[in-house]
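pinned: reference chain
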Amino acid sequence: MRIDIPDQKKLTYEMVIPIRWGDMDAMGHVNNTIYFRYFEVVRIEWMHSLGNSLKPDGEGFVIVNAFCNFIRQLEYPGDILARMYTANPGRSSFDTFVTLERTDEPGVLYATGGATTVWLDSPAKKTLPLPPWLREILE
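pinned: its C-alpha cells
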C-alpha cells in the first residue's frame, strides 16, 4: 500500500544528510530502517531550528504513526536532500511529511514518508493543545 503525500502542505524545513557507509545493509543499499532515521533527523533538526530542545521533562511532540514509501534504492556514497512539510494542524496534533532525493539527482524522489505527531506534556503523558508559536508556524 502506498500512502500519498497531500497536495495541501507547507514546506517547513530542508537539510542535507550524508549517506554513511554504515547505513547500508548486506544487499549494498541503505537499509529500510535507516529511512525512518532520516525522517527523524529532519523532524528533530526542524524543532531545534525553532528553538525547541525537546526535553523529556517538558513539552514536545511524539510520533503516533509513521510510514515510508520506498521508491528507489539509496546507495553510498552520496548526500540526501530532505524536505519536510507540515499539514493538518489539529488541536494537539499535526502531520509531517518528508521527501528524500539525492543532491546529485535533483527532483528525483527516492522516498517519501510521514508521521502524525502529537504535542505532549511528557511527565504527565497527556496531550496538550499545540502552543500558539507552533500553530502560527503550521498554519
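why pinned: The chain has one domain: 10-138. The first helix runs from residue 32 to 49.
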